[in-house]
Structure formats: structure tokens, C-alpha cells
Amino acid sequence: MPENQESPAQGAPQRVDVVPHTHWDREWYLPFQRFRLRLVTTLDSLLAELDANPDFTHFLLDGQLAAVDDYLEIRPEEEEHLRRLIRAGRVRVNGAPGELSTVVGRPST
Fold first, then answer.
1. What is the pTM of this model?
2. Average pLDDT, integer, range 71-84
3. What is the DSSP letter of 104?
4. Mind listing the domains of the chain with CATH numbers?
């Protein structure tokens, strides 16, 4: 720690906020379809974990409007499941309100 910076009092509790999240880039260092397979695996696991573990209260999809569309193209049967978790505040799509139809620009089914 730099000399000019005060250290917290020894033994004083420190607050640490942990935000479970992912930032998904469609084509970063692998082709789109390879990343999409990883996305589907990741979101399938996430939805299952949120259902199985009530202590896992929230997850942030950071900047993930395209990722939601990409996921639902492969797993359209999960749309209502994802909507329910978004409405409950357990999944948040960064920059989007709680309704999936406003996120992906299509009416709910």
C-alpha cells in the first residue's frame, strides 16, 4: 500500500460487493458459432443454478442484448423461463428494464 494512503483500521469489517456477471463478446478470439455454443452452455447452467439455489439471488448479463437473442435462437423454449427470472429481478440485462420484450424488441409470446 502506498505510504500516503491510510489503511483500514485493523480488525475493522470491510464491505466487499460481489456481482455475479458475464460480459459476452460474440466474436472476440473465436468464431461466432463457437462462442454461441459456449453461451448456450453458460446460460443453460445459469438458469439451472438459479432454479436450484435460492441463495443465488441475481446475475448480471452485462451488455448482453445480442447474447439474449443468440441464446433464444437456439433455446426458444427457454424464453418464458428467462422472462420469469428477469421479472423477479434474478437476472438483469444491463441497460434494460425488467421485461424481456423491451430487451429483444419483440412482443412476448
1. 0.73
2. 96
3. H
4. 35-104 (1.10.1240.90)
Q: In this predicted model, which residue has the larger pLDDT, 3 or 15?
A: 15
Decide: helix, strand or coil at residue 74: helix
Average pLDDT, integer, range 52-56? 96
Element (H, E) at 91: strand 91-93
39 to each of 5, 10, 24, 59, how far by Cα in Å? 42, 43, 8, 15
Dihedral pair phi/psi, residue 7, rounded to 5°: -95, 155
CB 86 within 8 A of CB 100: yes
CA angle in degrees (0–180, nearest 5) for 101-104-107: 35
Convert the pLDDT of each residue in 78-101 to its tens digit: 999 999 999 999 999 875 554 454
